[in-house]
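Researcher: Here's my situation. A collaborator sent me these components and asked whether they could plausibly form a single complex. I don't have experimental data yet, so a predicted model of the whole assembly would be a useful starting point for our discussion.
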Amino acid sequence: DQQVKQNSPSLSVQEGRISILNCDYTNSMFDYFLWYKKYPAEGPTFLISISSIKDKNEDGRFTVFLNKSAKHLSLHIVPSQPGDSAVYFCAARRGNQGGKLIFGQGTELSVKP
Amino acid sequence: DTGVSQNPRHKITKRGQNVTFRCDPISEHNRLYWYRQTLGQGPEFLTYFQNEAQLEKSRLLSDRFSAERPKGSFSTLEIQRTEQGDSAMYLCASSSFGRGFRDEQFFGPGTRLTVL
C-alpha cells in the first residue's frame, strides 16, 4: 500500500523556468510533510517541510504548498537552476512525536541550460 | 562534525554470509533511523532508536535483521544469512527530538549492499 505517491518519475525544465513537483498521499493522519533532494551516491538532503496547520511554506527559491482536502502537496522551484537537477522525494509522517517517514517513489528533475 | 557517516560505503557478499553496517550520527542527535532503498523506490523505514532504546521496528525487519545502539551514539545493523533480495542501499539518518527540535532527519551517504 503506497501511502505517499509521486506519479511523475521524471520532469524536464528549462533553466530559469518554474519546476513543479507533485505528491499525493492517502493517509489523513499524516500531519507533517517534507521534501528531500538526492544526488547520485549521496544520501537524501532535507530541503523544506510543512506542517498540516499551514498551506504554504517558503524558503528562498523553494515553496511547498499543501492542499489537505485533496491530500496533495507540491514543491515549486523558481527559478530553476541546473544544480537543482536531482531526484526529489516527498515524505510524510503522522503525530507530533516525530518518528518514521513514509517516502514517495521520487521524481527525477532535470534542469536544462 | 560533518554529518552522518556510514561504513562501509559498499559491501559485496555471497548469499548466506552475515554482514554488519555501522552508522555514526551527528553529535548530540538523540534519534537514529535506518532505512532501506531499492532502485526506483523511496527509502523504506526499518527501525529507529531514541538514545539506546529501539522505539519501532518495521515488519520489513525480519528475524535475520538486528540493530543496536548500545551507548546511544553509533548504531550497527546486522543482516544474518543474507539473501539476494537484501541487495539495496541502507541509509542511516539522525535527528534531534524534544526541547523544541522537530525531528528533521539528516541522512548519511548510505551503504550499498550487493548479495551475489
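Model: Some features of this prediction you could bring to your collaborator: The longest strand of chain A covers residues 30-38. The CA atoms of residues 17 and 60 of chain A lie 15 Å apart.
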